[in-house]
Amino acid sequence: MHGKRNPTTQCVGIEAPLGHRRLTGLNGLWFSGQTWGWLVVATLGLVSAAWGQVSPQQMEEGKKVYETTCMVCHQPTGMGIPGVYPPLAGGDFVAGGNRRAISIVLNGLQGAVTVKGVPYNGVMQAWKAVLTDDKIAAVLTYERNSFGNKASPVTPEQVKKVRDELANRTTPFTPAEIEQIPNEDVKP
Ligand code: HEC
């Protein structure tokens, strides 16, 4: 009995530190595994943006920005109020090349414009001092892919590029000026 018990005790004594070390090793693996997981998610997000696919996360973020910042005028349906607030559904400035939409949201829009056959002559404020590049990218991606619209997503990098180009401009755009902006996506 004695002879049998001793080796068992010794065995446990040796196994415990080993087991502990092994567990620590596994923990380390698990953490780096999780980090890699996030990196993969982030990379897939960037790649899908580059491929022109719309990420669900950006749509969700954009919906939040829309509901808190834009919906009061452009309405839950994106249809606006005829003659007062233009619709975002089916509007050329919203769903064409994203350079025009980004410019409008950064600096605002003022003056006579006809959207889907209805004339408007109002003022929309600039949002550049209110919303970050991330938020503008998200809300525009949302608008360009909601209300029946289907257009390329907008990345924060594209917004930043236009923001830098417009750094010295303080006045809103007129619709005529927007027509002069190439109807194309901002190049990466
Ligand atoms: C206080 C009301 C108001 C709010 C809030 C508002 N807009 Fe506007 N928006 C307008 C008006 C008015 C116009 C048209 C200006 C004109 O007549 O020249 C406009 C025009 C636009 C246009 C061009 C529309 C087109 O079809 O030609 C876009 C794009 C747009 N808004 C996006 C946004 C986004 C994005 C937000 C939220 C960040 C927002 N708006 C918040 C009032 C508003």
From TrEMBL:
User: What UniProt keywords are attached to this protein's entry?
Assistant: Heme, Iron, Metal-binding
**Keyword ATP-binding carried by entry:** no
What Pfam family is a match, any one?
Cytochrom_C
All copies of the Cytochrome c domain together span: 57-147
Against Gene3D superfamilies, the record matches this protein to: Cytochrome c-like domain
| Alphabetical list of InterPro entries matching this protein | Cyt_c-like_dom, Cyt_c-like_dom_sf, Cytochrome_c-type_DH
Disordered: annotated span: 165-188
Task: Name the Gene Ontology molecular function terms of this record.
Answer: electron transfer activity; heme binding; metal ion binding
- SUPFAM superfamilies recorded for this chain? Cytochrome c
Q: What is this protein called?
A: Cytochrome c domain-containing protein
The organism named in the record is Candidatus Methylacidithermus pantelleriae
